[in-house]
Amino acid sequence: MSPEQKAEMIEQMQELGYITGFCGDGANDCGALKSADVGLSLSEAEASVAAPFTSRIDNITCVTRLLKEGRCSIATSFGCFKYMALYSMIQFTTCCLLYVYNVNLTDGEYLYVDLFTILPVAICMDRARPFKRLVPKRPKKVLASLLGNVALVIGFQIAMFFMAESQPWYQKQVPADPNDPDSTPKEGDLNTAMFLFTSFQYLFAGAIFNIGPPYRQPAYRNYSYVAVVAVILIFDLWVLLAPVHGFSSLFGIVHTKVSWRFTILGMATANFALCYLGEWLLFPRLAIPLAKVFRLIKLACSGKLYKRYELAAGEAGHAEHSSLWARLGQRQNRKEYKLLLSGMVGGSSWY
Fold it and tell me: Residue 51 and residue 31: Cα distance in Å, rounded?
């Protein structure tokens, strides 16, 4: 094929609705490499300038490696996005609950969470390698997983808030100056309970969203991530169960009963168990119904809902088009591949 025919082949496929990839090893492939959705150069010469990807392997076996890396990258991006979003919601909920009594986290608590928990976990999550096999299904949806975990962590924080207030030894933090609500000291029973509990939520969120197979290697193969999580977990347990006066004064936490500290640990464990089970069993099944609901809302807001309903009613004789709800979950069908042959120069003899 000539360079023009190669580029035309890619463009014809794209017009039919296909996502195209192209491998080339010479200057005559530059047009097709630029036109393709994914261009992979098998040479470090002229073709590498036109292609977004360049392989040192001079045959098409590098395509499978590129697909593995791509699936790993998108799964990693989804996981990091969900982790940072959930971290923000955890801290936002904590601050909102503490603001009820004009209380906030101390500077030491903010510093520990942001610098010594979130930062190392987020960095080490990105170091996972691709899984050894390719699977045909796409990575999991983001929205259902994120919304489900947000609801769980907020629910557990609210429960911890009321549980702390219901303890017989609980002392409400009051302003030092009755005329100045901002003079309320940050250190107290409520601040301590919320900080100790959310310290585990930040850490467990990284474990929940550290997606392993089928797109990335298991989390235990990411040795830097395992080391970071182990160190932070041991330190959090130390601060919770065997507090040292120096760390207590640094974070601004107060002494509480041992039984209450084990209650905090039990709540954190239950929170992690429910989030983990939801992430792998429940939330993926809710992704498609949730997507349909959003598409339905989008059609209603754009005024196209009635038109789509008439189209679904007109095709009610077909089993696959039996309802509007079923049509909302369907992707647009691609045209038959044989149409590509008739559109190419030379008819069906081009291959």
Answer: 10
pTM (two decimals) = 0.81
Q: Which is more confident, 101 or 121?
A: 121
> CB–CB of 14/37 below 8 Å?
yes
Nearest residue to 247 (alpha-carbon basis) of 47, 92, 108 = 108
Q: Select the CATH number that applies to the domain covering 68-296 from these four: 1.10.4100.10, 1.20.1110.10, 3.90.1070.10, 1.20.1250.20.
A: 1.20.1110.10
- Determine the number of helices (DSSP H) and then strands (DSSP E) in the chain: 15, 3
DSSP string covering 3-53, please? HHHHHHHHHHHHHTT---EEEE-SGGGHHHHHHSSEEEESSSSTHHHH-SE
Q: Which residues pair with 22 in a beta bridge?
A: 39
Residue from 24, 77, 100, 88 nearest 55 by CA: 24
Strand locations in the chain, DSSP E?
21-24, 38-41, 53-54
Give the pLDDT band (50/70/90) at residue 321.
Answer: very low
